[in-house]
Design a protein that fits this description.
The chain is an alpha/beta fold and 277 residues long. The protein folds into two domains: 9-209, Rossmann fold (3-Layer(aba) Sandwich), CATH 3.40.50; 218-273, rRNA adenine dimethylase, C-terminal domain (Helicase, Ruva Protein, domain 3, Orthogonal Bundle), CATH 1.10.8. Helix content is 36%, strand content 18%. It has twelve helices and nine strands. Helix 3 (59-66) links the parallel strand 2 (49-53) and strand 3. Helix 2 packs across helix 3 (59-66). The radius of gyration is 21 Å and the shape is elongated. The termini are far apart. The relative contact order is 0.11.
Length: 277
C-alpha cells in the first residue's frame, strides 16, 4: 500500500489490465511523488472543483485528493479505467465524480456551472491536448469558467504555448495563448517517469486567464496569424497579401519588411483590428 492507502499504480494497472493504448494518447505517470508535485503546483485546492481529463489509472487523481481538492471531476474515455477510478471514489467518499466519455464532446462551461472556483489539472492525452487547450483559450465567454490550468504537454508543445517573439517556437499557438492568458513552464518530466515511456520530454504548463485581453475578435486574430505564420520566413508584406497586404500593414502601422516571428501579441491585435476597406 502507498501513503494514501491504495495499491501502487503498477499493481492497479496489472489488476485491471490497463495496458496503455497509443490510439488514446495514453502515457501513464506512475511516480506518485511527481503527481504530488503537479497537484501542489496547482495551488490551494481546498475550495476548488478540479476538472481532470484522462485520469487513466488515477495517479494524478489520487494526488489531487490527497492534497486537499474539495471535489474532482475526472473525465475518462477508456472504460477499462473506470473500476480503478471507482476504487479511488470509494476511498474518498463524495469527493470524486467520474464522467465516462470523450473529453472532446464535453461542454466544459456547462460542466463547471454552479461549481464555484474551477481549476483544470491534467496529464492530457497527447493526441487531444492541443485541441482541448485551444478550446479552453478561445471560449466565447471571458473571463472563462476556469481560474487556472495546470497541464502536461510534450515539451515541444509547452515551448510553443509560452513562446515569445524572436524565438523558433513562437507561432499561432503562442499568440493565442499570450492574447488570452499568462503562461509559464513549471517543470519538466523525463520520459522514464511514464509508462510506456514517450520518446520526448514532457512539461507542466500553468496558465492563468487575463481578466481583460486586448479587444479583438478570435476570427480576425486567427485570420492574420494563419496568414503570417503560414509563410513565416517571408516578409509580412508578402505573407499577408491574401488578407490585405500593404493596406493592412499601413493601417496597423507595422513595417512590411518584418517577419511574423518578430511581432508581439499587441501588434497582431492591431493587424486583426485594422480596417482594410
Amino acid at each position: 500500500m502507498t501513503a494514501d492507502g491504495l495499491p501502487p499504480l503498477r499493481a492497479v494497472i496489472e489488476r485491471y489490465g490497463l495496458a496503455a493504448k497509443k490510439s488514446l494518447g495514453q502515457n501513464f505517470l506512475l511516480d506518485l511523488n511527481l503527481t504530488g508535485k503537479i497537484a501542489r503546483a496547482a495551488g490551494d485546492l481546498s475550495a476548488a472543483t478540479v476538472i481532470e481529463v484522462g485520469p487513466g489509472p488515477g495517479g494524478l487523481t489520487r494526488a489531487l485528493l490527497t492534497h486537499g481538492a474539495a471535489h474532482v471531476v475526472a473525465i475518462e474515455r477508456d472504460e477499462r479505467c473506470l473500476p480503478a477510478l471507482a476504487d479511488i471514489a470509494a476511498a474518498w467518499p463524495g469527493r470524486l465524480e467520474v464522467v465516462s466519455g470523450d473529453a472532446l464532446a464535453v461542454d466544459f462551461a456547462a460542466l463547471a456551472e454552479g461549481r464555484g472556483d474551477v481549476k483544470i489539472v491534467a496529464n492530457l492525452p497527447y493526441n487531444i491536448g492541443t485541441e482541448l487547450l485551444l478550446r479552453w483559450l478561445t471560449a466565447p465567454q471571458w473571463p472563462p469558467f476556469w481560474l487556472s490550468m495546470t497541464l502536461m504537454f510534450q515539451r515541444e508543445v509547452a515551448e510553443r504555448i509560452v513562446a515569445l517573439p524572436d524565438t523558433d517556437a513562437y507561432g499561432r499557438l503562442g499568440v493565442l495563448a499570450g492574447w488570452r492568458a499568462q503562461s509559464r513552464i513549471v517543470f519538466d518530466l523525463p520520459p522514464q517517469a511514464f509508462w510506456p515511456p514517450p520518446k520526448v520530454k514532457s512539461s507542466v504548463v500553468q496558465l492563468t486567464p487575463r481578466a481583460a485581453p486586448l479587444p479583438t475578435t478570435l476570427r480576425a486574430l486567427e485570420r492574420v496569424t494563419a496568414a503570417a505564420f503560414g509563410q513565416r520566413r517571408k516578409m509580412l508584406r508578402q505573407s499577408l497579401k491574401g488578407v490585405g497586404g500593404e493596406r493592412l500593414l499601413a493601417a496597423a502601422g507595422i513595417d512590411g519588411t518584418r517577419r511574423a516571428e518578430t511581432l508581439y501579441v499587441e501588434e497582431f491585435v492591431r493587424l486583426a483590428n485594422a480596417p482594410v476597406g
